[in-house]
Write a structure and sequence with these properties.
five-stranded mixed sheet; four-stranded antiparallel sheet; Rossmann fold; globular; alpha/beta; single chain; 2 domains
Length: 200
């Protein structure tokens, strides 16, 4: 196994309301980075993070799952935490060993009770976090509504770093607002190609 000095190791937790897509986010990150050979699905009961027989049977995370990938010369340890209130202990334990978190929220629902709860945990720890409007390919996904709800709940300090290109069946890429570049997803689900920023 490749060795990494401490300065090249990052620890990140995926947190959020139940069924906000944290496990599939982890699966996508691992697949895109080449850490796993195929993209599993919760529905198919074959994701890398849901390993316990009870998790597989129920289709939900009961325990935190841990996996790692390599990115930009660093080892990134990902902790996929459960979203259900019954398993909040694993969320708290996960946050004790990470440097930051990605807060997943459903693009068709926005800020939910679990979103508020994990945000409180992050604030108590003074921990940096990114919000991710997840499941943009689902019917009724609404990025603008998600962003408005984030501002309403968490203040003007929430800033967009990326915006989606399309939503639902028409979701096809993202615009990186930091570098002002647009990317469209390739059919393999693993790569993107640069495109002109759409007028809209």
């Amino acid at each position: 196994m490749k060795q990494f000095p401490p300065a090249q190791i990052r620890n990140v937790a995926l947190v959020g309301h139940q069924e906000s897509g944290k496990t599939m986010l982890a699966e996508s990150l691992l697949y895109t980075a080449g850490a796993i050979p195929r993209l599993g699905r919760v529905e198919d009961k074959n994701t890398a993070m849901d390993y316990d027989s009870e998790e597989i049977a129920r289709g939900i995370s009961i325990h935190s799952g841990v996996a790692h990938l390599e990115h930009a010369g660093a080892k990134v340890n990902i902790i996929d935490t459960p979203g259900y209130e019954d398993f909040v202990g694993d969320v708290l334990l996960g946050l004790d060993v990470v440097e930051g978190a990605i807060v997943a929220l459903r693009a068709d629902a926005g800020v939910e009770v679990g979103t508020d709860r994990v945000w409180g945990f992050l604030q108590d720890r003074g921990m940096p976090a990114l919000f991710l409007a997840n499941r943009m390919d689902k019917e009724h996904a609404n990025y603008d509504k998600c962003l408005a709800l984030l501002h309403e709940h968490f203040g003007a300090g929430v800033h967009a770093l990326q915006v989606p290109i399309g939503s639902g069946e028409k979701f096809r890429g993202v615009v990186d607002l930091v570098d002002m570049k647009a990317y469209e997803f390739e059919r393999d689900g693993k790569t993107t190609k640069p495109i002109d920023i759409p007028d809209d």
